[in-house]
Specification:
Strand order of the largest sheet: 3-4-14-9-10-13
Distance between the termini: 36 Å
Largest sheet: 6 strands, mixed
Helix content: 40-55%
Structural class: alpha/beta
Radius of gyration: 21 Å
Number of helices: 19
Strand content: 15-25%
């Protein structure tokens, strides 16, 4: 399996090289030259354990890694989860909740980043050398990435988060890690500012090569590959329980990485009828899929901070596939977006841009009301991101009634990570978890700085040299 760039100016590369490269050298994102069709193998996969299924799915993409070595990495990655199923689905009312918060940092990012940390270490042991990982986070990626990398030999990690724009728990999870290879950076700006800095630094190929930079954001294809697995896993189990042939997934999303993994699973012919994209007030993706217009209108801070994003990194991967892998069109579209902050694509029928992805949004009051009503009716506690998805799933199911496929809503984080929002919704402090409680009063380490490409470069140089 070879990988090429959405921008068309990077030589095809194998999986391990794609992992180390992160962002393609031409500024685009890497994708496999073809998406495997596993429709003939579904019966063989549907009763596998999570780790067994992960091996079968990931091995389709990581063709340069021996199967036994890949299996060892995968088994080790998911041994850190506190649920035997790794990613169980539970019925809440007439929806299913896919619980993706049973990893060490209580967020869905663990399912990819525990694996990616081990993968980085494996590749470096094979090749030698060192790696300096640079990432930007809107909250959960940072702590999950740090957990996956801390203490590993020959790897440093630099994580930028927007100062005071992540939840207090998310900040604690990052800044209380004092391992010498972990560097937290609080930038005075938004996640989009951090993402801009990340892309600018990776675009400086001399700097990238000199300091052996690697990416742990979802621009790294390995992140997407690992996330494909839980779509298959949940679909198999809910189909078996309900007797239905296919399911729908509702995905609260900001950077489009999580739902893009679902999109790849759908294209691989997983038993998925469609995807429902859920946005908060920062609804650039929702507006695009409904109207064809992708345009910035200003960022709002919400109770679901991991979705407070305007420029979604993985959206470029979707556009590339949607436009039949035409790199020239991608380059023109993003040149236009950089100039005008807006691009527009045609819509189709009643579904908008794509019949496989329908979308809706949820505002702050609806988010809090959903947390309250689900807790009172079902005694189930949603974090605010999952509440956005739950509300949107219910709304979409009323608009598009032609499908009877069960809806699985992705629970992206444990509610204890967003205690302030839960307390506001319920007027009581009940969102607890021992992992979170253990963070209280721990010492922290973090470097605050302006949202500046040059400042971040200077900090990396100082810490690495």
């Amino acid at each position: 399996m070879k990988y090429t760039s959405t921008r068309g100016n990077t030589q095809p590369t194998n999986f391990s090289d794609a992992v180390i490269m992160g962002l393609a050298s031409d500024g685009g994102l890497l994708l496999p030259e073809m998406i495997p069709d596993i429709s003939q193998n579904l019966a063989d996969l549907q009763n596998l354990s999570y780790s067994e299924l992960a091996l079968e799915i990931i091995s389709l993409f990581a063709t340069d890694i021996p199967r036994e070595e890949l299996k060892e990495m995968i088994d080790r990655s998911y041994s850190t989860f506190d649920h035997k199923e790794v990613a169980p689905s539970v019925k809440v009312g007439d929806l299913y909740i896919l619980e993706l918060f049973h990893g060490p940092t209580l967020a869905f990012k663990d399912l990819a980043l525990q694996f990616l940390g081990n993968l980085f270490e494996y590749i470096l042991k094979k090749r030698g050398g060192k790696l300096n990982i640079l990432g930007a986070t809107s909250g959960d990626t940072g702590s999950a990435a740090i957990e996956g990398i801390k203490g590993k030999e020959n790897i440093n990690i630099f994580i930028m988060h927007p100062y005071k724009r992540v939840s207090p728990v998310q900040e604690q999870q990052m800044t209380t890690v004092l391992d010498k290879n972990v560097y937290n950076i609080a930038i005075e700006g938004s996640f989009d500012d951090g993402q801009y800095i990340f892309k600018e630094i990776f675009g400086d190929l001399d700097f990238k090569n000199k300091y052996s930079l690697g990416a742990i954001n979802s621009v790294n294809w390995a992140r997407i590959v690992a996330q494909i697995v839980y779509y298959f896993y949940a679909a198999f189990r809910v189909c078996k329980e309900t007797g239905k042939d296919k399911v729908q997934f509702c995905v609260p999303t900001g950077n489009f990485g999580d739902i893009f993994a679902g999109y790849i699973a759908l294209k691989m012919n997983a038993p998925i009828s469609r995807l429902i994209l859920a946005s908060n007030e920062n609804d650039i993706l929702c507006r695009f899929f409904n109207t064809g217009e992708y345009s910035r209108k200003g960022l709002k801070q919400t109770h679901s901070p991991s979705m407070d994003i305007e420029i979604a990194s993985n959206f470029e991967r979707y556009l590339y596939l949607h436009l039949n892998k035409d790199s020239s069109k991608i380059n023109k579209l993003f040149e236009e977006f950089n100039k005008t902050k807006s691009i527009c694509l045609p819509t189709k029928e009643k579904y908008g841009v794509d019949k496989d992805i329908i979308s809706g949004s949820c505002n702050t009051q609806e988010t809090l009301s959903t947390i309250k009503s689900v807790y009172e009716k079902h005694n189930y506690l949603l974090d605010p991101h999952t509440a956005v998805g739950f509300h949107t799933a219910k709304k979409i199911s009323q608009i598009f009634k032609e499908s009877d496929a069960p809806i699985i809503c992705l629970a992206t984080a444990h509610p204890a990570k967003f205690n302030n929002a839960i307390t506001k919704a319920l007027n009581k402090d009940i969102a607890k978890h021992p992992t979170i409680e253990a963070l209280s009063n721990l010492p922290t380490r973090c470097k605050k700085m302006k949202a500046s490409v040059q400042k971040v470069k200077e900090y990396i140089e100082k810490c690495v040299d």
